[in-house]
Write a structure and sequence with these properties.
- The protein is an alpha/beta fold.
- Helix content is 32%, strand content 15%.
- It is built from 30 helices and 32 strands.
- The strands form nine sheets. It has a six-stranded mixed beta sheet, sandwiched between helices. The protein has a five-stranded mixed beta sheet with strand order 9-10-26-28-29, with no helix packed on it.
- Strand 28 and strand 29 form a beta hairpin.
- The longest helix has 47 residues.
Length: 1004
């Protein structure tokens, strides 16, 4: 009996470990490989060290660390922006004795949270950096702020992406400045101030991160907010105001000589407190510096600027307003539920035990159109000055604190010899920059343009910003009295406007186009006004200052032109409307109509919260999770499983369209394609039939960060806005190459980044990952970074394409926008990253364009990204393991290639297996596999693989464990069964013997 039980048990266990467990594990192989850092690639013959290296490191580990520290510091030093400097409060001379105020001064924000977060526990502190520059810090005050009691009681708080992702009701109340009350500071360290009174430096930090936008005190949400003015996280909290007021009193008493504010944030805060005539209180602030998020070594760059060892040359890449909510886009920040969502069966599956992360009941409206950031503030300003467009009672000086492009220096620069030459494709702008001060420094030369706003535009709904950045360059370090002549090329395409209603392409209106060099966007508008003959006196003080008409060039376009800019330079594709279905005024499933903000009538078209939209039956049907009907597209099955003897390495260097690819693709089985496409979570699978190795990808908008999955991390650079604020493409390209090398030497083949979304509002949770409110500077800086990263064979996946500019309800929210805004603002960075930077991959957004998820929008994934921009590599989804709406059939047919999914059996595998006999879907998988392999073969993943190498699948170690355990129990089963059989035989023999004995007795 015992051996019967043991036999059954061991057989069952053996079957579990030999058959059942491997089948289950295979469905989760991706997540096992990623979390255990397991490579499933075998290369034979095994390459010798240094053999077949297509991409190599430029530095030893030690030298690379030194170079990264230098570049990280330089990026911050050139990106930090001197906002104000009254009475030459900065720089602080060596030997200064200063006091650092606020909890954030000892707990600086180095980066954002979520997928791009990093462990900053070992990063240098602000105290460390300033001490290196010979500035002495008040230790008593520092120790007070770092004490356990203060640190535990007053800790900056932010939403936790793991518990509140994209749900504002959970996320927004978690934000808080939680500053130490002023009286507590006085009681704890007040007696030390007089000994460190050369400056009081107050740090204002505002944190953002993945999964939540910042609170703007929207009362309609019914939320009880945390510390802040009426819940607005970008206002100073009462405790912060009290501290500044206390510092002002001590300054008046002679304790402190100056008050300096450091803005440690990527979310442009309300700056009214810097202006007594606006906020009504004089806090006595002498200087202010925006430092963004400095990353691992950037804090040394902050100290460089504060001490004057580096002259600041950064330029703001966002408008800093008196009140962050003055941006019209904030009227539609968080999104709204469709009014009939419940009745229509639309849903938001809330956090906490939800089986899927799906949203199809929520929408947002980009009602502001093209008027994002300075495009709103500066355009309305000009219209107010010119008394046109029903601009209303618009007071620029009490609305804007610091304009886009603003940045002071410790020296002064002059422009001269301004000249513009018309070229075949645009204009060459030449200007001489002279350092007229007494300190060496660099200057960001900014070129702005204005296109005519005509009757045609007004009649056809074409909007025009009064000013747009169209070029920039950074000078060398100019010594006092030294000059440099700078030439900047301006592309004619950057002067064109998209007409989505009449011409349905890019147009150049007839009329005057103005081009100027200016210190910022506001100065540019004043230059344009001056060129038109206006002055502050002639406008009754409406102009804020005189412009310089000598720095304005006028080009007259004699006739309306809808041809010159209507063809993609990258591909030759004619450019025409692609996104009518995202425009609620044109969509076939539109839930409502909208009045776009227009400069033809500012007051009459003012942005307002778009509530109460009703989802039509057609919209509800479109929001279904899979809309493709199997067999509805006529097609033939491709060749599969051919034995052509090719290996992927043989495709290296061949063009995407080379005929040899077809023979290689014929070798793929349907199962190869299904498993390759369905599971791309931080890796692509080994495909033995074509000799494709496994690849590894990791997050990295600001550097290699394996903080979520574990594994090797590397240097963390500044937030993306600081990179953009350098306006130094050469520096960012150098940084990108170092970043790419970090991935290379740490065994990664691709990076999920850089981020290409827009600072649509100051409240965007992931603004730190994105460059700017302006698409031009974002696109140019991104292209430089991408080029640098890819120079090391590291694949980039620029993210998140497109209109994924907010975190609230991000898992499927429907974003409604017009095509002009989409093309001119939200897609321009993506376009430049591909066409100028050569980006080979993209990551699509969680969101929908109108009713279609980005990844299933053929207009976006194929017609725009591939046909117009020329993208040839991988388009991967964002995390899709638990989102039904990011379905594979619809996505593949639209042009998506790879699903960021770690659990084959959870959704994606079974979903795709149901279509593995559908010719249209299989052909789409074949093309997706082509694009994946094209990216991989041209990446550093092929290092170590030569022309004669054979790449095969190496069974992971955990299978050996399963099979080993199974083998042990199989052996035990064999032994138990043998013992059982033997026992049965023995019992039978005994029984037979007994029976024979009994028979003998009976016969006797």
């Amino acid at each position: 009996m015992l051996f019967s039980i043991l036999s059954v048990f061991t057989v069952l266990v053996a079957l579990i470990f030999l058959v059942g467990a491997p089948m289950v594990v295979r469905g989760y192989e991706t997540i096992f490989n990623v979390y255990t850092n397991t490579d499933t690639t075998s290369v034979s013959p095994k390459p010798s060290e240094g053999e077949n290296q297509y991409f190599e490191a430029s530095y030893s580990d030690e030298d690379r660390a030194k170079e990264e520290a230098k570049v990280g510091e330089q990026v911050e030093a050139e990106g930090a922006v001197l906002l104000r400097n009254e009475n030459e409060a900065l720089p602080l001379p060596s030997g200064s004795k200063i006091s650092l105020f606020s909890r954030s001064s000892v707990d600086l924000l180095y980066g954002g949270t979520g997928s791009s977060s990093s462990d900053a526990s070992s990063f240098p502190t602000l105290k460390d950096a300033l001490a290196r520059e010979g500035i002495e810090i008040n230790d008593t005050l520092w120790n007070f702020y770092t004490s356990d009691d203060i640190a535990s009681t007053y800790k900056r708080s932010i939403a936790d992406v793991k518990t509140s992702s994209d749900n504002p009701e959970v996320a927004l109340p978690q934000f808080g400045a939680n500053e130490v009350p002023w009286q507590t500071v006085l009681d704890g360290a007040g007696t030390s101030f007089s000994d460190y009174g050369d400056a009081a430096v107050f740090v204002v930090s505002r944190s953002g991160g993945e999964g939540a936008d910042l609170p703007d005190a929207d009362e309609s949400l019914g939320i009880s907010y945390n510390s802040g003015v009426d819940g607005d996280y970008l206002q100073l909290s009462p405790e912060e105001k009290d501290t500044l007021a206390g510092l002002k009193q001590l300054k008046d008493e002679g304790v402190f000589k100056r008050i300096i504010v450091l803005f440690n944030t990527s979310n442009a805060p309300s700056c009214d407190f810097l202006f007594p005539d606006v906020c009504g209180v004089d806090y006595g602030i002498d200087a202010a510096v925006w430092i963004g998020l400095p990353g691992q070594y950037g804090v040394y760059g902050v100290a460089d600027v504060v001490s004057g060892s580096v002259n600041p040359s950064g330029s703001l890449v966002d408008t800093y307003a008196m009140n962050a909510q003055s941006s019209p886009a904030t009227r539609n920040l968080y999104g709204q539920p469709y009014a009939n969502a419940d009745d229509a069966g639309l849903q938001y599956q809330a956090e906490g035990g939800r089986p899927y992360y799906d949203v199809n009941n929520t929408y947002n409206v980009y009602q502001e159109g093209v008027y994002v950031g300075y495009r709103y503030y500066e355009t309305r300003y000009e219209d107010y000055v010119l008394k046109q467009g029903n601009a209303g009672d618009y007071d620029y000086s009490s609305t804007v604190a610091f304009p886009f492009g603003h940045g002071l220096s410790y020296t002064t620069f002059d422009y001269s010899d301004y000249e513009v030459t018309k070229t075949e494709d645009g204009f060459d702008v030449t200007v001489t920059v002279t350092n007229n001060g007494s300190v060496a420094g660099k200057k960001a030369v900014q070129v702005y343009a204005q296109s005519p706003y005509t009757d045609y535009d007004k009649q056809n709904g074409v909007e025009k910003s009064s000013v747009a950045l169209v070029g920039f360059s950074k000078t060398k370090l100019l010594q006092p009295g030294e000059s440099q002549t700078v030439t900047i090329s301006v592309d004619l395409d950057d002067l064109a406007s998209y007409d989505s209603n009449a011409a349905k392409t890019y147009i150049l209106d007839a009329g005057d186009y103005l081009i100027t060099v200016a210190d910022n966007a506001h100065s540019a508008v004043n230059n344009f006004l001056a060129a038109k003959g206006y002055t502050p006196d002639s406008t009754n003080g409406s102009m804020t200052s005189n412009g310089d008409s000598n720095l304005v060039y006028t080009w007259n376009n004699p006739t309306f032109d809808a041809d010159s800019c209507s063809t993609s330079k990258a591909t030759g594709q004619k450019v025409t409307n692609l996104f009518d279905e995202a425009d609620p005024n044109k969509s076939s499933v539109s839930p409502s109509k909208v009045t776009w903000l227009s400069r033809s009538d500012w007051t009459g078209t003012a942005a307002s919260t778009q509530k109460g939209w009703i989802a039509s039956d057609a919209l509800v049907d479109t929001l279904r999770y899979t809309t493709y009907e199997k067999g509805s597209i006529s097609s033939e099955m491709p060749v599969t499983g051919a034995k052509n003897g090719l290996q992927l390495i043989q495709m290296r260097g061949l063009s995407y369209d080379d005929p040899a690819w077809e023979s290689l693709l014929d070798q793929l089985s349907v199962d190869d394609m299904v498993r390759l496409v369905a599971c791309g979570f931080h890796q692509t699978n080994t495909v033995a039939s074509v000799g494709m190795p496994m690849t590894r990808e990791e997050n990295g908008s600001t550097g290699l960060t394996a903080s979520i999955l574990g594994g090797n991390s590397a240097t963390t650079y500044t937030s993306a806005d600081v990179m953009a604020a350098t306006m130094n493409t050469e520096l960012i390209n150098e940084m990108g190459a170092l970043m790419g090398e970090d991935f290379l030497v740490n065994g990664y083949n691709g990076v999920y980044g850089p981020g290409i979304n827009v600072h649509r509002t100051p409240y965007g949770g992931r603004n730190f990952e994105y460059y700017s409110e302006d698409p031009f500077v974002a696109g140019e800086i991104c292209a430089a970074e991408v080029s640098g990263i890819q120079s090391k064979g590291t694949m980039v996946f620029i993210k998140h394409v497109a209109l994924n500019d907010a975190e609230t309800y991000r898992m499927g929210i429907g974003v409604w926008a017009n095509e002009q805004a989409m093309r001119e603002v939200y897609l321009r960075c993506t376009e430049k990253a591909i066409t100028e930077g050569g980006a080979q991959g993209i990551m699509s957004g969680f969101n929908r364009l109108g009713a279609e998820w980005c990844g299933e929008s053929k207009a976006l994934m194929t017609d725009y990204l591939r046909s117009e921009c020329g993208l040839q590599g991988i388009s991967i989804t964002d995390m899709s393991a638990m989102s039904r709406y990011m379905d594979t059939p619809d996505g593949l047919l639209a042009g998506t290639d790879l699903w960021d999914n770690m659990m084959y059996n959870r959704l994606r595998g079974p979903e795709l297996e149901a279509f593995d006999d559908d010719p249209a879907v299989v052909n789409a998988m074949r093309e997706a596999s082509h694009r994946i392999m094209y990216s991989v073969v041209n990446s550093n993943a092929m290092n170590g693989i030569g022309e004669n190498s054979k790449v095969s699948y190496a069974m992971p170690w955990y299978y050996w464990i399963l099979y080993g355990i199974g083998a042990v129990f199989a052996l035990l089963s064999f032994l138990n069964i043998r013992r059982l059989v033997k026992g049965v035989k023995m019992r039978r023999a005994i029984r037979e013997t007994a029976e024979e004995t009994a028979d003998s007795s009976t016969r006797s």
